[in-house]
Amino acid sequence: MPSKDTDNKILVALAGNPNSGKTTVFNALVGSRHHVANYPGVTVEKKEGICRHGGYELALVDLPGTYSLTAYSAEELVARHFIFEAHPDVVVDILDASNPERHLYLATQLMEMQVPLILVFNMSDVAESRGLVFDLEQMELLLDVRIVPMVASKKKGVGDLLDAMVETAQADDASKGLRIHYGDEIEEELSKIEALLNQTEGAFASKYPVRWIALKLLEADAEVSGWIRAADVRQQVAGSREHLKTIFGDPADILIADTGGTG
Questions:
Q1: HEC profile for 231-247?
Q2: What is the tens place of the pLDDT at every residue in 11-29?
Q3: CB–CB of 131/189 below 8 Å?
Q4: Torsion angle, CA of 153/125/139/262, rounded to 10 degrees?
Q5: 7: burial class by Cβ within 10 Å (0-12, 13-18, 19+)?
Q6: pTM over 0.85
Q7: How far apart are CA 107 and CA 140, in angstroms?
Q8: Residues 6+ apart with CB under 8 A from 76
């Protein structure tokens, strides 16, 4: 596994939906300097490569393409395990700029994970041909995250992305995106769960963002739910899920996806 052993080494994780052009971005950055293996214990493919920029060695890991970071598939689990366990210096989320709404849910999940984040608006030429024009400076302010436009198939924006990676990795307060507000009712239930987690699940609270754990519990994420032993937390989660379903008619995971995916 690439590692960030010294000050001039930067570990970068590339995330993105299938068909976002993520692998094209990876290839534009590392060329033929990469190798392919499998993640331990699973048949999910792992691509790693090296590139150098501005005196830094960037070790890039092309994570499996996923639409989210829940526990529904091996690819999703592999991606989020890598982010939490390898602690990359930068996570780069590749979005198809011609269809941004479909890709924003993964972006919001990465924001909830509180990782140093860059959003890449790939296929910017296709977006422009469809009449989509983005005020990226305003979007950066609204989302509180660095955004880089690219046309990876033509290697346009490669230098800007490399600059952003180095700057983000070296920043003491690297942007992690805005805090998503899911509506007053959901936020109230999240606050109740977070308070109990801070009281009873100290080990997990120190390793993972407490708000992220609370969101996963509300979503009935199988892996995260299995971590929790405290009966009062389990009871609160069950009560919160039932309360939200009574109010809105849909389970909490659907409500969170709808709200987070649309901002």
A1: HHHHHHHHHHHHHHHHH
A2: 999 999 998 999 999 999 9
A3: no
A4: -90
A5: exposed
A6: yes
A7: 13
A8: 64, 66, 68, 69, 70
